[in-house]
Every structure is written in structure tokens, then in C-alpha cells.
TrEMBL record:
<protein>
    <recommendedName>
        <fullName>Secreted protein</fullName>
    </recommendedName>
</protein>
Length: 186
């Protein structure tokens, strides 16, 4: 029997499906590197990404979490956060204002309900995200599914829902100089 003192010193074991572990490890191998991207699918032809430099930076990695700032031109307000939960993976979107304060719509995302593949994980909107999108009058986003792809030569971020697809691909064969930290002076 484990006593209370022993239990307090025992870190939880974060076991997940081998596909999720392999996916997380593949991302971890990119830590510290940055890559240019391009929009390859955008069913709404959003002006937010047109003619802008797109850069992802696998900035910080730990045994449980990876932070990937996504820079759109001079806008450094977005960070993707992938976390090992012990029963899978979660993806959150951290959105900030120029002063570093939280955006009204932030920390939304999803949980991997399926083992996925070593190269691809899907994150259907979680219950908090669905609630927040309903509260913020964004009902079209309640059914969002985000997918992240990690192949030896390409990283892709995709959003899909009824009537909407957005995907940006990043070339992993051509690392670039790391951009400034999110929230750094613009």
C-alpha cells in the first residue's frame, strides 16, 4: 500500500496510444525550429491570410506540452498548444492581443477521441469550446474539427466544418530563422 507521502511524490503516468505518442515525439523533434507555410485550401478565401508571410515556430517543448506560435504577417497573436493528457492529446488555440492580454475568444480547441495515426491527429471541438462558441455567437464553429499532420517533409494545420475548409502547409525541409516571441514588440 502506498502512503500519502509516497503518492504525493509520484508523478502521474501519461500513457496514450502509441500513435499519439509517436505523433507527439515527431513534433518534439522539431522543437526550436521555424518554417514558412502557405495556404493550400481556404473555402472562404479569407482576407486574413492573403498575401501574408505564414510562419510556425515549434518554440517550447516539454514531456507534456508543445507550444507552436503561428505568425501571420506581423500578427504574432496565435499559439497552438498540444498537450498530452494521459488519455490522448488536446489542441488549444491561445489568442492574445498586442499587449499580451487574452482575446475574448481564446483557449478553444479539441481532444483526440481516437488513436489517430503517427502522422495525423484529429481534434473535434471539446465541450468547453462548443459552449464558448455558442456564448460568443459563433454557432458555425461548434462543429469544428482541427487536424494536424506531421510528415518528414511537411507539417499541416487544417480546420474543417460544414461549408468550411482551411489548411496551411509548412515546408519542413527548409527551416528558417526563428521569429520573435509571441507578444514581443511589434
Amino acid at each position: 500500500m502506498i502512503n500519502t507521502a509516497q503518492a504525493a511524490n509520484t508523478a502521474p503516468v501519461l500513457n496514450s496510444h502509441p500513435n499519439q505518442q509517436a505523433f507527439f515525439q515527431a513534433l518534439t523533434k522539431l522543437c526550436g525550429q521555424a518554417f514558412k507555410g502557405k495556404v493550400v485550401a481556404d473555402s472562404t478565401n479569407s482576407e486574413a491570410f492573403n498575401n501574408k508571410s505564414l510562419v510556425m515556430h515549434v518554440r517550447t517543448c516539454s514531456d507534456t506540452q508543445i507550444h507552436i506560435p503561428f505568425h501571420v504577417g506581423e500578427d504574432r497573436s496565435r499559439t497552438w498548444i498540444i498537450t498530452r493528457t494521459g488519455s490522448g492529446l488536446s489542441l488549444k488555440h491561445d489568442h492574445r492581443h498586442k499587449d499580451g492580454s487574452e482575446d475574448a475568444v481564446t483557449m478553444y480547441g479539441g481532444l483526440s477521441h481516437e488513436p489517430g495515426f503517427a502522422q495525423v491527429q484529429s481534434f473535434p471541438a471539446d465541450s468547453y469550446t462548443q459552449w464558448m462558441f455558442a456564448e460568443k455567437d459563433l454557432p458555425q464553429s461548434i462543429s469544428n474539427i482541427w487536424r494536424v499532420f506531421v510528415y518528414p517533409e511537411r507539417f499541416s494545420y487544417q480546420l474543417v466544418r460544414a461549408g468550411r475548409e482551411f489548411r496551411v502547409d509548412f515546408d519542413l525541409t527548409q527551416p528558417i530563422e526563428a521569429p520573435p516571441a509571441p507578444g514581443a514588440a511589434r
